[in-house]
Fold these 2 entries.
Entry 1:
Amino acid sequence: MPLIDGFDRLHDNLRISVTDRCNIRCFYCMPEGPILFLEREEILSFEEIERVARVAVSLGVRKLRLTGGEPLVRKDLPVLVERLCAIPGVEDIGLTTNGVLLAGQAEALWRAGLRRLNVHLDTLDAERFFRITRRDDFGRVMEGLDRALELGFRVKINAVAVTNLCEPDVVPLALYGRERGVEIRYIEFMPLDAQGLWDKSKVLLQDQMMEILRREVGELVEIPDRDPRAPATEYRFADGIGKVGFISSVSKPFCLNCNRLRLTSDGKLRYCLFAIEELDVKGLLRGGGTDLELAEVIREAVRRKWLGHEIHSTQFVAPPRPMYSIGG
Ligand code: SAM
Ligand code: SF4
């Protein structure tokens, strides 16, 4: 039986967080001050991650994405990539990274079989990069992007959109994307930051960004969805040069198409970014659980899925884990 939830949604996508650690401190994700990261032994080993992935693939999962924290701070990540690529049935594997360590690791990742990267970059302005990330690594990210493109990776850029900050970045990012053949995906700021800074007025909305792009770059034409379950709505510029996408979790939630499950670095399964509850798989992995039992937990996570997050409802409660600890 495939992984179909109570709302008839087929689940074939597993996002795997390999660490909660990060080498930068984006204000909409991490706190500025000291953070109590997980201890090494609390984090799933590559063998454990691979086992969960194998069981998930046996249930119909076809797409994997590695994330974090910052996945490239996890030692020997290409080894995990190679193992996951070798699982029969995996059709697609991607990695989401802040790009700081990418220049040095891109080649090993390519050799391990990775072809798709989402590089997180909100701005092409070094000073604003510092304000957002509280780190001085803009140059390293740009180097990482250059190296990845040189090697032939398919690259998308993830740009988080916050009001009174990111407006000046909308156009330069789109122009960069048009020039380099990279899709820019603007992501509405979500209530998943560690400092509780989010409120609706801080979300730069898809419609506002589209208006800026139409006015300053050119007309946008919606691209009919090849995969209606992909989170981004995509547009191409009418002159045929370049694409942009919007992940509009706040203004246009796409929960009805959800096909995702998440595995946190400490071995919890989550059925939604915003879920309050999670199911433990680490206990099974380390307590002699069988693959059948693991499969049952995965099925249970799918059974428990809700129709969608309720950011707009007065009952909305932000999950106790911020983005870096869930795995965005
Ligand atoms: N460190 C990697 C990175 O930054 O790409 C991977 C993990 S990060 C949590 C995954 C993605 O989450 C990032 O690309 C960023 O765009 C997004 N993100 C983080 N905090 C967010 C927030 N509060 N709202 C919307 N997107 C957020
Ligand atoms: Fe690190 Fe990614 Fe969170 Fe930024 S968004 S602090 S890069 S985990």
Note: The longest helix spans residues 138-151.
Entry 2:
Amino acid sequence: MKLPATILLALIFAAGVARAATARPNIVLIYADDLGYGDVGAYGAKRIPTPNMDRLAREGLRFTSGYAPSATCTPSRYAMLTGEYAWRQKGTGIAPGDATLIIKPGRTTIATILQKAGYRTGVVGKWHLGLGAGKIDWNGEIKPGPNEIGFDESFIMAATGDRVPCVYVRNHRIVGLDPKDPIEVSYGRPIPGEPTGKDNPELLRIHPSHGHDQSIVNGISRIGYMKGGKAALWKDEDMADTFAGEAVKFIEQNHRQPFFLFFALHDPHVPRVPHPRFAGQSGLGPRGDAIVQADWSAGEVLKTLDRLKLAEHTLVILSSDNGPVVDDGYRDDAVEKLGDHTPRGPLRGGKYSKFEAGTRVPFIVRWPGRVKPGVSDAIVCQVDFPAVLAALTGQTLGANDAPDSFNVLPALLGDSKTGRDHVVEHGLGGVGLRVGNWKYIEPASGPTMNVNTNTELGNDPQPQLFDLGAGLGEKNNVAAQHPDKVKELQARLDQIRQAGRSRP
Ligand code: NG6
Ligand code: CA
């Protein structure tokens, strides 16, 4: 059959447009810090306005079983970037602010994968994966770091808001450091002559509830000691503006080619010191206000994508590095003003925990040109990102790369209702395993509670088995009624551990 030339042209044009809309989308990963399953409007929060995250959910696919790989920051980020569960490797626990880089240069990461595919890659925000290879020279070149493991550009804080050094690092240098006022960092001894939260509480504007009583920066005592670098010190209330500004700038400067931005928010991690314009917005004190500020940060990215007409062709993923915590070390009214807000939603536990709230987090994928809006119950995990991004850009992972990363791209794009069949949930003191609706936590001798944060950790010397289909709250341990299931899931966990990998 011969088609008239006009129809033929129209067909070719339509195919071209379809290809343009799906091939190599820009990718923005908005990664909140300690944002809980129940902290976002789209996940049922009533008290905290999160219009931008809710917009993402409305325009995208919202996952009800989206997981962070671990219940704390460093291991989650390690696993997300490398595709290897952090519990397989020593030295991937919560890193001090002077830790060396825990992902060695040469390793395949989501950033190297996308670099290979021709993306311009950038990271802005919280790093917390260590820097340097030995003792860090904070006053000189700080490397290796993000730039050596796949990021063309980086603007980061080394660790967390509550850890020194309280400065930003752009590529290999501290931003705004005056060479006449060098900076000194210590995670061992106090620095003589420098006030601390412990000895000088009268200098504090926010007091610690546990820990956090070492060097004082901006009237807030932190973890670790530092001295000097005055001109380079961050102002906590400006941090969200600074990071959002850098994120927007990265998009503005790089959108003429495919780009990948890892936008790692600090909010709502402690210390929660939102900008005054967010103070009081939630009615829940600084924790709620910091979530409003996190939502604003996400909104700045969305606005930029709209303004530059990039939204249609950009895959945005919003998630969190671990579950929520209310009192994480400062007396900031989070407990007192919580009211009926439940950061963990219907789940049990929270940050640090092997119960669901430790790792099951908000997880939203928006790609207007490709992903149909809706809700998905597929099990997906951030450790899958390397396999997913390799698949998305037509690459094959090396045999030993990303050993726990499953290609759940069809689930993320809404083409399939199923993701992985299982996920290992890692908290303080051990792991659990979810397979379908069974949730198993292997016996562990650690404390049952983090008494400081008032979180149930999920440690129990007896095996625990829950049927998530009967309720998300992990209330009834049915291990005694299902000894065969317990055996089967323990065997599976042992196998995953011994094999050193879990993907095919
Ligand atoms: C803990 C800190 C907590 C927080 C956490 C890391 C104390 C008592 N608690 O050790 O405040 O900083 O580490 O959080 O120091 S994370 O989200 O970066 O993993
Ligand atoms: Ca965190």
Note: The chain has ten helices and 20 strands.
